Give the backbone structure.
Amino acid sequence: MKKEKGSAHKKLSANEINRFIYCPYQWYYGRYYGQTALREQYKALGSKQSKTEAHFTKGIKFHKAYYRSYRIKRLLMILGLILVIAILVGSFMRWSK
């Protein structure tokens, strides 16, 4: 089904509602012109990427760094727990002798 300029869709997706809440103008232009036409306009302006794409790239970098630090923290917690258990077992074995 080919979209025509200005054609109204009957249903809204959750993604569209999210876009509307984030920026009503972005939602309107995306719905009116379509995402492909908007990307072509960004390219015509000579912009390498839109602000949205730049924010998306920034977000990906942030989440990768956050996940990496989360994994390190989790590993340190597990190692700390193993160390505490080893100390308790060692002291119990010493105490029971």
